[in-house]
Specification:
Layout lengths: L15 H26 L15 H26 L2
Amino acid sequence: MTDPLNEKILTLRLPSGMVGQIIDALCERMQTWRATERYLNDPDALTTELIEECSDPQEAKAIADCYQQIIEEIQSQRKAQTRR
């Protein structure tokens, strides 16, 4: 994964409802990667959750953590804008 500090910053203007939909979708992706991490750490556990094609629990965790950071950043920016 790339270092977010070295990436160009973009500004998007979206209706709050669309931002909510983006957050919901990102949460679903994060939860799928968390389920993948759990499955890889305990493959004998039965699960009905979706899992991603991945063989390394550390990679699955890193991807889930990345989604979580994105979600938190969007939520933080949304909260700051709704206080204005």
